[in-house]
């Protein structure tokens, strides 16, 4: 009997020690980001926000992300800092607001200013992680060498989206310099050529210049248009009817079967990374290092879906064609009251005059594309958990629903770039093997922001964000938000310049207010313009969201709301203009078409330090 007791005690001590060692290990981390995904494409989010699994527009399906929500913590009131891909992704990777990082648009930037700090994967590598990325990154960082801006590798294993285009591996892509078509050398190279590739390997180049200069290829774009049932962005309001050479595919069927699409290939590459432990593997002509089992892994899986081109595989498309959707409509009264910046964005992406058939088609295919992406997320997360458990290592998954959202005729538009709800509301889910830190099925309704991602993952990886070296981080640790240890925000903020001009927003539980922040986009010039500009010059927009959840009635000039508007105006401008604002003329242009990224002089405005204190009592 004594021997049995001793054996039991020894076993208990062994398992206790093993459990302690396991708990002390750094977790493997998977960070999943989708692109242009609206929150209402996720049933779990709809159920939390609206009390029903479908969108207010109609049917959606997301069983795999719904499963993640059941397994972990859903931060349902997360908002992005900028409603454009590049500035939004920069805010995530830096853990900094655009007005503090100086990255407002699609400009390329460098890390050689006195306002430059490590990006998230660099910090994770310093913490001992093997870092890996596949798919879309969208962070336009460069390193300076001898006065030139060179490509900056952020991840030790980087299977970039460009590879899939350059080597024609996926169903769509862009060739930056096309010199040969079907074995025939072109007289004149054609730049920036989009293409579609079917499952038999046939490539359809879509270029007006190509067909005009090479009559033997005339009709190629039309053939693709017909074969894949394409629908392009078009704007009759602006005199831009749809043609087979238009840009931005809003609907169509994928030229490739499920799993063989661009997003499918990203998923396969990620799983191959996990499978090829301590050895190399190939994607196209390139060779990459597989997972190093001696280290924790930090993986960023960046999906393209449901960004244009919206091309769901055939079985998803056919399934969603059976559903009819309620289409939002722009009224004359809403349009009349729009802020100038919003009217500009709506005019350029006007969809209110689409036919009923066109509107149904773009909504059906958008949600079908999201459903397909959900299946891929299910495969990737399953493989990641299995790999982690195989190696007795704790794990964490952070899912970001879109780098921003997308309108499906809300406000009469198909686009993003505004602080309206459907563009800016992007919930996050965190699932962890440590259920004490991230409990199963918990919903956090406190405001959270994209700048919270970096401090959350750094903390999970063993860093102490309270140390001085992390003083630059603007966000909060989401684990502390869930446990109630973090400050409670009365508002969220952001600033975005692309497509609507420089504009910042502040959102509380009852209101969303936004204004123009600059008279132009010249960095470092007239930085404090908004502090003296007239209210009318600020082009304000105010929506009473608890009364008007669809944000269709701009109250900025309603006398009943004058006090509220002034309160929010002062708070917003004090923060984004006066509390550590930084602007850098990086060089090149703000659209990323002229890449220089050699500027290093930082211009600052700091007349209201501490204004961003999370407190705003709007009355």
Short characterization:
The protein is of the alpha/beta class and 619 residues long. The protein folds into three domains: 28-160 and 296-383 and 395-483, Alkaline Phosphatase, subunit A (3-Layer(aba) Sandwich), CATH 3.40.720; 172-251, no CATH class; 492-605, no CATH class. The radius of gyration is 25 Å and the shape is globular.
Can you give a write-up of this model?
With 619 residues, this protein is of the alpha/beta class. The protein folds into three domains: 28-160 and 296-383 and 395-483, 3-Layer(aba) Sandwich (Alkaline Phosphatase, subunit A), CATH 3.40.720.10; 172-251, no CATH class; 492-605, no CATH class. 30% of the residues lie in helices and 20% in strands. It is built from 18 helices and 26 strands. It has an eight-stranded mixed beta sheet with strand order 8-5-16-1-17-18-2-19, with helices on both faces. Strands 21-22-23-24 form a four-stranded antiparallel beta sheet, covered by helices on one side. It has a three-stranded mixed beta sheet with strand order 4-6-7, with no helix packed on it. A hairpin with a 2-residue loop joins strand 14 (280-283) and strand 15 (286-289). Helix 10 (262-275) runs parallel beside helix 14 (356-390) and helix 11 (314-320) crosses helix 14 (356-390).
